[in-house]
Amino acid sequence: MTRLSSGQNAGNYGGGSTGMPQNIWLQLARKGDIFSSSYSINGSDFTIYKEITKTLPGTVDVGLAVASYTGGTASASFSNFSVVNTVPEPSTYALFALGALALVVAYRRRVA
Fold it and tell me: Which of 26, 33, 69, 72 is the most interior residue, by most CB within 10 Å?
């Protein structure tokens, strides 16, 4: 389910899946402007369902929703929901440059 732009109704623009088990793990990941949705039957082996490219601000709101496509009432139970902000580890070159800068500062303090 996606919302194409702010203020629009949400809809299923990617097509639905049939034959999915009732209890599955869902994962939404973002890398830059690429969003991927994945699912897993066992919680550890994820299969990518769809990827889209969408330019959004660096910070976005996330949430869970359920919809009934038959016009009736829908209900769902969500558990183990979390939002994880992963920060990439600094590169070896960045750490080397930081160490070199610290040495220069220490040397200048000693000379002055």
Answer: 26
Query: Cβ(35)–Cβ(50) under 8 Å?
Result: no
Count of alpha carbons within 13 Å of 24, Cβ hemisphere only? 16
* Rounded Cα–Cα distance for residues 8 and 106 (Å): 57
Least confident residue range of 58-62, 64-68, 92-96: 92-96
Q: How many CB atoms lie within 10 A of CB 60?
A: 9
pLDDT tens track for 20-61 = 556 778 888 888 888 888 888 888 888 888 899 988 887 778
b/e string for 34-54 if b means 16 or more Cβ within 10 A? ebebbeeeeeeebeeeeeeee
CA 37/CA 12 separation, integer angstroms = 13
